[in-house]
Amino acid sequence: MRAWLTGALLCLSLPLSSAERIVSLAPFLTDMVVLFESQDRLVGVIDDQSLPKKLETVPRVGAYQSLSLERIVVARPDLVLAWTSGNPAELLTRLEALGIDVRRFDPQTLAQIDAMTVELGSVLGRRERAAELSAAFRSQLDRTARPAGTRPPRVFVQLWDDPIFTIAGEQLLSDALRHCGARNIFHSQAGLSPQVSVESVLAADPEFIIALADQSERAQVWLNRWRAHQGIAAVRHARLYALRSDTLVRPTPAIAEGVSELCRLLNPSKSVVEGGQVR
Predict the structure, then answer these.
(1) How confident is the model over 32-57, as pLDDT tens digits?
(2) Distance between CA atoms of 196 and 162, rounded to whole angstroms?
(3) pLDDT over 90 (residue 116)
(4) Structural domains present in the chain
(5) Is the per-residue pLDDT at 269 higher than 90?
(6) What is the DSSP string of 57-110?
(7) Dist CA 243 CA 180 (whole Å)
(8) What is the dihedral of CA 246, 248, 251, 252, to 10 degrees?
(9) Buried b vs exposed e over 94-128: b needs ≥16 C-beta within 10 Å?
(10) pTM confidence score
(11) For a Cys staple, 189 with which of 22, 149, 168, 252, CB 3.0–4.6 Å?
């Protein structure tokens, strides 16, 4: 056995307080630790360009395609927060075989985000903080849900262009649309982010088109291409909008703000986005 692994295993055998040394293997899980005000316990995080400055000195344990078992073990974690569908299953199994507590999370619905919050609160010994986050999350969502009984508008969400990628029914954003009383036109597609054609979008005749991008200029280019198709309802009624992707892609309680804006946008009587601009 390599020397580094032998030394790390000896360190792991020393007594530690519960969840005092945490390694996070997903940006959204790092966000969760910060929301729980427990960032001082982080001894390793996955590379992420959007990490807050307060985490600049926390060691990196690799990127999505290059997570390092050696770096993780040397950090002596007593808890690894893992992303079920985003981290290599073999790596997580090897960590568990070394006696490290690995907790897997992969929330794909708003309800699962809430459940994750409660579970993490228990794991981190921050149950009161979890209750606060959960209550605020559910309260904000309750205030923005579309009234029951209204007809769900058909919505197309664009994630990329050339080729065109969208969201399928099992994706978190599709659940956000359901919460807002809307219907994802590609809800029956398999996977999470399927590729679709221009023709399939036109055939579905969406009443809203939402471009989800990190830059407004990029989103506007996508929307301008759809404006050439005057036959679809979204174009006829000028309901082509762009939203910043960072408000809706990370599954933490903070997503409630992005979902609230999405709901207001899809309610024509309470439109908050003018001219299709990213807010």
Answers:
(1) 999 999 999 999 999 988 888 899 99
(2) 10
(3) yes
(4) 3-106 (3.40.50.1980), 152-270 (3.40.50.1980)
(5) no
(6) TSPB---TT---HHHHHHT--SEEEEETTTS-HHHHHHHHHTT--EEEE---SH
(7) 15
(8) 80
(9) ebeeeebebbebebbbbeebbebbeebbebbebee
(10) 0.86
(11) 168
Cβ contacts of residue 57 below 8 Å, gap of 6+? Answer: none
Report, as an integer, the average pLDDT of 177-201.
95
State how far the Cα of 182 lies from the Cα of 157, in Å rounded to an integer. 11
At position 217, the amino acid (one-letter code) is E
Output the six-digit token pair for 268: 């024509």
Sign of CA dihedral 203, 205, 211, 216: positive
- DSSP bridge partners of 58: none
Residue 156: CB partners within 8 Å, gap ≥ 6?
Answer: 166, 185, 186, 201, 204, 206, 208, 209, 210, 234
Q: pLDDT tens digit string along 121-175?
A: 999 999 999 999 999 999 999 998 776 667 899 999 999 999 999 999 999 999 9
